[in-house]
Amino acid sequence: MFSSTANYIIGILALATLVLGGCTPESPKTTNKPNFLILMSDNHSYNHVGCYGDPVVRTPHIDRLAEQGIRFTQAFCAAPSCTPARAAMLTGQEIWRLEEGANLWGILPAKFQVYTDLLEDAGYLVGFQGKGWGPGNFEEGGRDRNPAGNAYETFEAFFEDREEGQPFTYWFSSRNPHRPFEQDSIAASIALDAIEVPPYLPDNDTVKADIRDYYAEVEDFDKQVGAFMQTLEENGELDNTLVVVCSDNGWQMPRGLANLYTFGTQIPLIFSMPASLDTGRVVDKLVSLNDLAPTFLEMANVEIPQEMTAKSLVPVLLPEENSDVYERDFIVTARERHAYVREGGTGYGGRSLINNDFLYIKNYNPDYWPAGDPPLYGDVDAHMLHYPSPTKVYMLKHKDKPGVRALFDLAFEKRPEEELYDLRKDPYQLNNVAYEDAYTQTKIDLSTQLNQYLTATGDPRVVGGEMKWKDGEYFAERDKNPRPSPALREELNLEEEYQY
Asked: Is the pLDDT of residue 321 over 60?
């Protein structure tokens, strides 16, 4: 049984196909099922795109898609870590429901259904390019291919395998803007003075230059988006394809990647399909990257598995005057093991609840270093200090200087069991008010709401049971004996090798 909204959107697509030239001789035979194209960046915070208000970075192709589609301002990933965020997106489930799938460099057990397989069973051609699900070992999870589908080197090669009129889903997972960055590649075109440094990082030329190098990779991703749109147009599939531009998690800076702050979890999310959807609409509703799975299934008229905890965004994607009521009061995000950065490869458990006003975080291991054991602090940036990481290195080197010490503590030091941030007054999450009397009731309310959600969705950290992610294998052996680069060993007085 499928919703009227799904039937409505399929009808719109079929009509658009007829009206906009789907029957012309040079166009491929079309179906009434939409195609899906995901264009995903890697470690890219939501606000570093032109259409999200960044005045410096140049992203004309992404900005154009936002003008032609729907831009979400409060979209979050399930986890601030590549592998679990991608696993959650594919399954439409929270990471604590995925056993070892909650970890970086782990597995995604085959018993967990992914939307790609369900679409393939419904006749879709399914492909991906780049990372897809990962990094990890899909064979050890009992799968014969990456959960993202069939691997392709290019979008053009994918089209060569497509039968005439066959609907498709394709996921391009860019390497940009994942570190290491090429340094100073756009130095001549962006002045350091034009770059705004967020207040949780030191404001100096070293950090600004590092952000500029990050911007260069964001701009490269934007060029990739443009190339994919050109290929889509050349194959006559613009009108029948829902294009999604997003990232997997936040940027690779201190307090970003591997952290439950919004700099680690809030992502850009744009849907574009001008022939069928509203154009230029901005949506402030709380949504999740996990929502892609049920959204695609509903649009393809494929039954959504009951185990999916995500919500279909079809009601939001419909023309505004026809939209059903869509409400979500909060988003829950989570972290378990990111990189192999503590003795024995122990992870750092945490859950967070974010709404329009507050961010509440529960840290289950307050005795652990959230950024990884010193002196490498491997859950921040270059986890083994094996490649350049200027902002992290500056903070490590100057941690006792005035103006740096407090920021170093926020990024690297141990954290209390509970954190609470008033986003109305403190959008950069600098002041933990969890232990202030004025916020006692707010903390109780949010903690209760979080625990109710975790209980309803079967989180072993709350309801009990085996936490398989704790002993899950880590499939990157070299990380277990990190060897910092010679340059950084000398600069930071590090040992040649560390053993975890």
From this structure: no
Token code pair at residue 70: 């729907």
99-125 tens-digit pLDDT: 999 999 999 999 999 999 999 999 999
The CATH code belonging to domain 332-492 is 3.30.1120.10
Q: Which residues of 439-454 are buried (b: 16+ CB within 10 A; e: fewer)?
A: beebbeebbebbbebb
Over residues 37-52, the pLDDT tens digits come to 999 999 999 999 999 9
User: Which part of the chain has CATH 3.30.1120.10?
Assistant: 332-492
Structure pTM? 0.93
The superfamily in CATH containing domain 4-326 is Alkaline Phosphatase, subunit A (3.40.720.10)
- Residue whose tokens read 């490269």: 220
CATH 3.40.720.10 range(s) for the chain read: 4-326
